[in-house]
User: Fold this.
Amino acid sequence: MTQLPTQTTKKLGLVIDLDTCVGCHACVISCKGWNTENYGAPLSDQDAYGADPSGTFLNRVHSYEVQPTQGDAQLVHFPKSCLHCEDAPCVTVCPTGASYKRVEDGIVLVNEIDCIGCGLCAWACPYGARELDAAEGVMKKCTLCVDRIYNENLPEIDRTPSCVRTCPSNARHFGDLGDPDSDVSKLVAERGGIDLMPEQGTKPVNKYLPPRPKDQLAQSDEQIDILAPFLDPVATEAKGFLSWLDKTLEKL
Amino acid sequence: MSHKQPALDLSPKVSDEIRKTTCYMCACRCGINVHMKKDPLGDLKVAYIEGNRDHPVNKGVLCAKGSAGIMQHNAPSRLRAPMKRVGERGSGEFEEISWDEAYDIAAGWLRPIRETNPEKLAFFTGRDQSQSFTSLWAQSFGTPNYAAHGGFCSVNMAAAGIYTMGGAFWEFGQPDWDHTKLFMLFGVAEDHDSNPIKMGIGKIKKRGARVIGVNPIRTGYNAVADDWVGITPGTDGLFILSMIHCLMQAGKMDLHYLAQYTDAAVLLNCDEKSPEFGLKLRDEDGKELVIDRTTGKPAPYDRKGVRPDLAATYRVAGITHRPVFHQMAEMYLDAQYAPEAVAERCGISAKRIRTLAAELARVAFDEAFELDHEWTDFRGEHHKTMTGRPVSFHAMRGISAHANGFQTCRALHTLQIILGTVEVPGGFRFKPPYPKPATAHPKPHCKVTPNAPLDGPHLGFVQGPDDLALKEDGTPARIDKAFTWENPMSAHGLMHMVISNAYAGDPYKIDTLFMYMANMSWNSSMNTSGVTQMLTDKDENGEYVIPRIIYSDAYSSEMVAYSDLILPDTTYLERHDCISLLDRPICEADAVADAIRWPVVEPDRNVKGFQSALCDLGARLGLPAFTNENGSQKYADYADYIINHQRRPGVGPLAGWRMGEHGPQGGRGDVNHSQLDNYIANGGFFVEHIPDGANYYKPWNADYQDWAVKMGLYDTPQPYLFSLYAEPMRKFQLAAEGHGERQPPDHLRARLREKMSPLPIWYETDQQGNEGFTITALTQRPMAMYHSWGSQNAWLRQLHGRNPMYIPTKLMREHGLQDGDWAQITSPHGAITVPVMEMAALNENTIWTWNAIGKRKGAWALDKDAPEATKGFLLNHLIHELLPPKGDGLRWANSDPITGQAAWFDLKVSIQKVAAPAGAESQPALPPLKSPVPQAPKNLTWKVGQ
Assistant:
């Protein structure tokens, strides 16, 4: 079993805005493309053109319907990848030390050379965020693009995870959640960001921003009362309207 | 184990080279950085694709399709060489041939047609992004039968916008994302306009601005909308007119804007007995007349200092003239548009309609603001500031693909205009070359002369009956019957009618059907099984009813098997293209822009960009536009055309780096032989910003008009008024009332009188024959798929490999259905048997499915057991291109009577729970096609750089 560092210098992670995620899967495929070509073994695909295609992805988007007690049902898109937990059970369960959490930034990684593909870490992860690559037989997971974020071959603006760089609706944010003054920490504070399944005690670094309240124009009596005067009639039929028009044009 | 960290290389080499080009994974046309890496043999290969941060369309972001481009580029479904059919049509039996042989066959078919009767060629292109080029080819050939796919896509949206205000949504314009505070979108599926809408929604939500989504289905953009209006399909126009009713009744309109910038003050002939009843009063120069409030006298609308009066009437020569605004008041204040009168049909409560209208009014007027931009209008009046009204709209096929779609789109534009939100800060803004009114566009041309070009462009904007594409005997000049009394304003043609009309020989028979990127034997036709039957049916002599079919595609699509000659296209990374201002441009509201594609890799197969093949074929046929005076080939390939073709002096396919007196310049200029290199060096695109102060109020802003002339968008300034009142439509009504030389057939008179209302109306789409079919069935594409292209992509098909029929909770209960059950979905035309899944966030009387997923077995290099081919299905089997018989001896098209837009969202069905079909396969299950490409590999472990 593998030890976690007692603490990390930074807590790098993602903040995902469920209010603006449109469920387009851009992050999923950008991640697949970058990580196929970069860190470790490529993300393989089995039966790629066949009856039951199944490939390795480090990030997936799930969609859930929510039925509020009042009003119309809603659809929430929920991207999910490794949350780089402070108390990462996937690390402590690893029998070879292949899974580890970096001291300098808190990123949880798999050292593929030491990985024996036993799958214990995937069982231990309460979020289902790890996938065993069927071709290579090693465990794959989000690296937070550790080969991008410090990469001096990339322009500084691009030193961010590929999922963040590509997200069209700007629903994904990257930064140091250990620094209360960072942009991501401020965003979490402003928007009431939450931990995913906090009862699991994993202390996830990634945070989710909850969707804003929906359908207020239909449901909030206060809203309806505020808006009603905007439609106070100036006339109810054409003749009255034209005399109102004449008077109003005089004033213009 | 104690904690141990291996040393990592945190700065690995990213790639050996970045080549910047334009995406083609959908029609959005984003800029992409294609990272090239050397493979173990030292050859540069495509390794990774990301968005180009400098590009005006996507500014660095990229959707799932774009990032998956590498898997499309390497798809096993790519065609490898020209092919000729050697078995029966539909058998998939082909023989690979050389390009020379392919050209010989094509020229052997086409030359006699051109020499005798060019109309015997029907040339239709599908998701073509080179329409200004393909239409030139067709024009030079001389056939009147050319169009692209707009007729079954969204011509209602485009045409209604251009006739009303000189542009529509998407390519035509965009919300003012920096200033808008309320964004309302109608009927937008998840795909159009892909990244810019997502970027815009993200941007405005960050500012705390709000989004209202009007759509029967709450997915995608509607899932993140702050308010969702799950409207009954086909009633958007009624809902909009009801909001207009509320706003007019409350006096919540921008009267100054209406008077100054629209035809609301233009005088109409109101004498029912006059042959000009309902037409606009004009001076001898043809200028619309208004009453000037300063003088009380009539004046041309654009005279310096004129203050058009919305209220005053004018009597001359015994005829009373009233302003358009009077008619609008009479029409829309009528109780038939009261929220209480429309609520039930729209499926929206009267209270909610009022609340939404009030919210529009509140934001447009209470949150109005001023921008410190000085500007001068076309009447010479100088303004210190620009008034912003921060309400903006966007809409697409959800409101347009109905038989009432044209009028619905016009209604939406009317709503924007009375709020004064078009081309103002915070509202909807045009992108150059728009605004451009219908009168500044060409009219349709159809005069056929053997061995000679057509007399002008095929497609355009009719201004009245005189512009219809009719032969001297009054019969349709075009195979698709575009621009006829059946659909007079069919600005994009009617691709969906070509095969059925050609099969029926109505209006005439053709010899050769030539198509590009149009999957007509599958998802691009209504009535898919019927169309495949038409393509394979033979006459009494044993000849195919449609004698010859030439088809160009890059991939093994369903249409390949139904063609006689295949011209294999390249992938988008292997080709030249131009995203041209002459075509469907990629400009921004603040900038003019165009772009190229270029071969970032050379094809490794015997394939050729279709446009280059047309350059070759055009020269072999001696088409004037493709042949030098000495008879030699004019353009070696498409790149040669892009550089050297000039549409007008100084105006070519690309506006960037044209040669001026002092070197390369944007806009007008001579041919520059290094132009493509200039584009490549700049990241594949050209952009030039509109000067401050010229970038709002564009139709009326003197500085913008001058800038547009300088850039070659117009040849002279073209200020105009928005047309709340569409006078061309009134001219068709007048004809139907018996006025004028050109008269409609009697059976169409009543329909023309009713449907061609010059002010937007709403009408129920034709429901005759739909008795017992009470449920609306819709399709939309997922954000990660485009048309039929996605399934061949190993990554994308893992996101969306199945398309159940989504059924709302209430209907699931009523029919005793549970997830995984099967249901037979029946329309008046046919039945399909498909797996179902419950969805709660859905209009309670609407069912829907994804339309990009179902595939024919054997196509796209997919395994025959692929779920796309076994469980996947098309709704198209349920939709006929004609309406059910009415018993009047006629068959009426399932199209908008104004534009001919395919009305596939009017589909009505019934549901019945059934046992799973044999083999648990969706029905109808058509027999497999024989694949023209080798079997795909089983597994992928893709990695270029090792």
About this structure: Chain A touches chain B through 104 residues (CB under 8 Å). The CA atoms of residues 148 and 154 of chain A lie 7 Å apart. The first strand of chain A starts at residue 12 and ends at 17. The mean pLDDT of chain A is 96.
